[in-house]
Design a protein that fits this description.
The complex is a heterodimer of chains A (248) and B (165). By secondary structure, chain A is of the alpha+beta class. Chain A contains 8 helices and 7 strands; from the N terminus they run ααααααβαββββββα. Classes of the chains: A alpha+beta (248), B mainly alpha (165). At the A-B interface, helix 1, helix 3 and helix 4 of A face helix 1, helix 2, helix 3, helix 4 and helix 7 of B.
Chain lengths: 248, 165
């Protein structure tokens, strides 16, 4: 009887017990084509190791060492631990900034976003250039200037109403800033800029810039940073909503 | 459980990423995003479960997201116009080394061939890391290995599969 496809591969991958393996090998003797395939597949495995095992011994690049040295994030329900962790992360970030150049692609993003946030945060009469009453116009205008279709996330369920938005200069050209405010007068800003080249998406990253918490991420060719002077966990909840609305 | 446990898996994540995406910096970026995401989501890891499988599952998700961001689909090879059966002999001879042959596998087949053949995952572990049924692992493995075999068949160094790089 001819051996089944699964048996052939299991034989290559050492997934058979000794008895079954002997039986399969006996049957292979009668089918040279199958035997040749088993030999080739086995050679593939060896070639993969010969080609790529050397990577195991390569020294880690600086960026990877930094990434791995970060502390794992605490369970969110332990508020106290999370608070301590937030401080740890902030300190860790500052130390990292001091010790090594952070990846240039995103290092300045939270900083720029936090500065823009801080500049317009206390503004009473002119917090935005175009108000939420002209939302369609606002979104069209900023989309045109950034050269990509923008959306102003709806955060009313989180207690934040859109105040409006403005255009800012950034390193990569035009930057859009949307501002939100809740009933207590707390303000959030969403800072949206283009990135030079599409290098894939990134996970959420967190940074604390003085009193401002910033969550930032990259989605294709657009970078987002959500800033607010509030605890990390509160801002994370809003950042998740923003992310989901932008990636339905 | 600490970051050191995650760090211990980085060399293997790098080996897999290098074979998966080819280019060194792109591969290390994939590893970095994977490690960052793992540390962000560490509270979701169940103590006692297989950390290696969990990390490779995260890398799979990051990888698929990157493919999507580029508009590629996991069921397509990097060069979708390439057809093994229709390829002229001249084309085959250009596929001389393993890197190029791997790049011509559809991403979803490449993942399975590498998890099983390079990272020594069992079929069940591969199924778990990729979030697919074991039967799908097997069919991708069958097709991937056969395609790799056809791609490498024209290479002059075929008998030993010695890779000159």
């Amino acid at each position: 009887m001819k051996a089944g496809e699964t048996e052939l591969h299991a034989c290559v991958d050492g997934a058979l017990d000794a008895e079954t393996r002997r039986a399969v090998e006996e049957r292979l003797a009668a089918y040279p084509e199958d035997a040749a395939r088993v030999a080739d597949y086995t050679a593939q495995r060896q070639a993969l190791h010969a080609r790529y095992d050397a990577v195991l011994d390569e020294p880690l690049p600086e960026s990877l060492r930094m990434a791995a040295a970060r502390r794992p994030r605490a369970r969110p329900q332990y508020a106290l631990a999370a608070g301590a962790m937030a401080v740890g992360i902030a300190v860790g970030w500052l130390v990292a900034q001091a010790l090594a150049p952070a990846p240039a692609r995103t290092a300045s993003l939270p900083r720029q976003a936090a500065i823009a946030h801080a500049v317009y945060l206390p503004e009473v009469r002119h917090p935005v250039e175009v108000g939420a009453d002209q939302q369609d116009h606002l979104v069209r205008w900023l989309s045109k200037r950034l050269g990509t279709d923008l959306k102003a996330p709806v955060l009313t369920r989180e207690g934040f109403d859109l105040v409006g938005g403005r255009l800012l200069p950034g390193e990569q050209g035009a930057v859009a800033q949307f501002m939100y405010q809740d009933g207590k007068g707390r303000r959030l800003t969403l800072y949206v800029s283009r990135v030079r080249e599409d290098r894939g998406d990134t996970a959420f990253r967190y940074s604390r810039e003085d009193d401002v918490s910033v969550f930032y991420w990259i989605d294709g060719t657009v970078a987002y940073a959500l800033s607010g002077a509030m605890p990390r966990e509160d801002l994370l909840a809003v950042a998740n909503v923003v992310y989901k609305q932008l990636n339905p | 459980m600490t970051e050191a446990d995650v760090a211990a898996h980085i060399p293997r994540l790098r080996r897999y990423a290098r074979a998966l995406v080819g280019e060194r910096h792109a591969a290390d970026d994939l590893v970095q995003d994977t490690v960052e995401r793992a540390l962000n989501k560490f509270h979701l890891w169940r103590p006692g479960s297989d950390l290696r499988a969990w990390l490779f599952a995260i890398m799979h998700n990051v990888f698929v997201n990157q493919l999507r961001a580029r508009g590629a689909r996991p069921e397509e090879p990097l060069d979708e116009s390439f057809d093994v059966a229709a390829a002229a002999a001249g084309d085959r001879l250009e596929v001389r080394d393993l890197d190029a042959a791997l790049a011509r596998l559809p991403a979803e087949q490449r993942e399975v061939v590498l998890l099983v053949g390079l990272e020594e995952f069992s079929y069940a572990e591969a199924a778990k890391a990729l979030g697919i049924p074991i039967g799908t692992v097997m069919s991708r493995l069958f097709r991937g290995r056969e395609r790799l075999r056809a791609l490498l068949a024209g290479a002059p160094s075929q008998p030993s599969l010695k890779v000159v790089k």
